[in-house]
Structures are given as C-alpha cells and as structure tokens.
Amino acid sequence: QVQLVESGGGLVQAGGSLRLSCAASGRPFSSYAMGWFRQAPGKEREFVATINWSGGKAYYADSVKARFTISRDNAKNTVYLQMNSLKPEDTAVYYCAANEGGLVAGTADLYDYWGQGTPVTVSS
Predict the structure, then answer these.
(1) In 3-state terms, what secondary structure has residue 76?
(2) Are strands 33-39 and 113-114 parallel, antiparallel or unpaired?
(3) Which among 31, 92, 93, 120 is least surrounded, fewest beta carbons within 10 Å?
(4) 69-78 contacts, C-beta under 8 A, 24 or more apart
(5) From the CA atom positions of the chain, what is the Rg in Å?
(6) Beta strands in the chain (DSSP E)
(7) By C-alpha distance, which of 97, 45, 93, 53 is closest to 73?
(8) What is the largest CA-CA distance in the chain?
(9) How confident is the model at residue 101 (pLDDT cuts 50, 70, 90)?
(10) What's the rounded Cα separation, in Å, for the pair 96 and 103?
(11) What are 46-91's pLDDT values in tens digits?
C-alpha cells in the first residue's frame, strides 16, 4: 500500500558526510511518523533516528546523537538523514520505515512499512 524508496548511500571516508533520502508514495505522507534503522552484516537491525508527523520532534540513538540529523519535507513526501563525522562502525544497510498511526518509536516492530535499504560503507 505504501512504498518507500531509499537513496543516497555510498562509500565515504571516515570523518566524511552523506545524506540519505527516503521517498514515499501510495498513501498520505504527512501523518506518518518516520524512522531510520540500520543493519550491519551478522548483526541485528538497530534504531538510528525517528521524527514525528510535523517534524517538530526527533529522537536519536546514543551512538549517532551528536552526528546525525533527521528531517522531513512533507510537500515532497520525503524524509532525510544527514550523517556527519562518519565512523567505520556506521557501515550498514540503512532502512527507511513508516508508522501509519504517527507513533514515534525506536522499536522496529512498531513500524508498518519498510524500504529496501541503501548501503553505506565508511572506510578507515
């Protein structure tokens, strides 16, 4: 019903920056809470950041709190993740997720829709 497509991943050096985008279609976007998660090889999917429907509230995992910024443009049905001061441990596939009810949450099983992911590799 709702499709999410991530883009913007790639290879960067440690200390560099990258901006990920997630475009949504198929359902009104403005009422959704949106989140970013990531999964490294052999590890569990982990919470990165989330933002509410208006963009007025955002929450981050401790590991990225001072370095990443989540934002959204409801007119474009798009959510972003600006990643600065990247570290090798940030290497993972990054997934965009949507909560239809607008719940801001850091638990993956509370989200209704997921994108296919975009890989980010940070070299040391």
Answers:
(1) helix
(2) unpaired
(3) 31
(4) 70/34, 70/36, 72/34, 74/29, 74/30, 76/23, 77/23, 77/24, 77/25, 77/29, 78/21, 78/22, 78/23, 78/24
(5) 13
(6) 3-7, 11-13, 18-25, 33-39, 46-51, 58-60, 68-73, 78-83, 92-99, 113-114, 118-123
(7) 53
(8) 41
(9) confident
(10) 15
(11) 999 999 988 889 999 999 999 999 999 988 999 999 999 999 999 9
Give the residue among 2, 7, 1, 31 at the shortest CA–CA distance from 118: 7
One-letter amino acid at 57 equals K
Six-digit token pair at 112?
């209704």
Do the beta carbons of residue 103 and residue 111 sit within 8 Å?
A: no
Q: Could you give the angle at the alpha carbon of 116 between the alpha carbons of 121 and 71, nearest 5°?
A: 75
